[in-house]
């Protein structure tokens, strides 16, 4: 049977989500130091079925996915997506602004950032200030997601040496963070 382009695209999307879901199950299982047999037993599924989920050959229901992740010590969470708008500086260089600020896990927020052939210790306030200045001016969306914590940015905001156009684009996000809104976990 020949499928329409829409049906083919949908089937491709479903396959991609099945692979991502499988990766999540494997990561959760490994983080819990469990083998497939143990996780399957605790979550009330068979090892064969869990293997099919992990390899993207089969997709679980949302309830089953939640049960498996719960058995591994994790939870299924819905969080808002962060999208980016590209902007141009007065000098013609591009920069990116997120739709919202996020909270990073402590290890990432105070970890190490490798940016433009330099290493920044984000636990050190001065190095974090330098890294955030660089990130807001030149960071890619991925770099911003990986290294900029909304609360830490709000705390440093007045100390950042930013061009006026970049400061203007980020200001409302920082003000929202300072008032307890707009920063997601």
Give a count of the beta strands, DSSP E runs of length 2 or more.
Answer: 6
Structural class: mainly alpha
Query: What is the number of helical segments per DSSP (H or I, 4+ residues)?
Result: 9
Number of domains: 2
Q: Proportion of β residues?
A: 5-15%
- Give the topology string: H per helix, E per strand: HHHHEEEHEEHHHHE
Query: Mean of the pLDDT scores?
Result: 90
Low-pLDDT sequence parts = none
Q: Residue share in helices?
A: 40-55%
Q: Main β-sheet, in a few words?
A: 2 strands, antiparallel
> What multimeric state do the chains show?
single chain
Question: Can you walk me through this structure?
Answer:
The chain is mainly α. The chain has 2 domains: 5-71, lambda repressor-like DNA-binding domains (434 Repressor (Amino-terminal Domain), Orthogonal Bundle); 84-184, no CATH class. It has helices spanning 5-31, 36-43, 47-54, 62-71, 106-109, 125-138, 141-147, 150-156, 164-178; strands at residues 84-88, 94-98, 101-102, 112-115, 118-121, 183-184. It has a two-stranded antiparallel ribbon. It has a two-stranded parallel ribbon with strand order 3-6. A two-stranded antiparallel sheet has the order 4-5. A hairpin with a 5-residue loop joins strand 1 (84-88) and strand 2. Helix 2 packs across helix 4 and helix 8 (150-156) packs across helix 9. The longest helix is centred in the first third of the chain and has 27 residues, at 5-31. The radius of gyration is 21 Å and the shape is elongated. The chain starts with a helix and ends with a strand. 22% of the residues are buried.
């Amino acid at each position: 049977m020949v499928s329409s382009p829409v049906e083919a695209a949908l089937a491709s999307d479903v396959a991609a989500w099945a692979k991502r879901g499988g990766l999540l199950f494997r990561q959760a299982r490994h983080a819990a130091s469990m083998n497939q047999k143990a996780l399957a037993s605790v979550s009330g599924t068979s090892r064969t079925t869990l293997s099919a989920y992990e390899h993207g050959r089969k997709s679980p229901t949302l309830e089953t996915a939640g049960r498996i992740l719960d058995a591994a010590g994790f939870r299924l969470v819905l969080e808002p997506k962060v999208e980016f708008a590209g902007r141009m500086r007065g000098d013609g260089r591009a920069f990116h602004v997120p739709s919202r600020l996020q909270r990073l896990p402590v290890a990432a927020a105070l970890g190490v950032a490798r940016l433009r052939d330099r290493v920044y210790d984000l636990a050190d306030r001065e190095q974090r200030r330098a890294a955030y200045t660089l990130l807001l001016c030149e960071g890619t969306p991925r770099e911003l997601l990986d290294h900029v914590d909304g609360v830490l940015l709000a705390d440093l905001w007045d100390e950042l040496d930013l061009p006026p156009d970049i400061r203007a684009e980020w200001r409302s996000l920082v003000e929202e963070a300072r008032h307890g809104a707009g920063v997601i976990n």
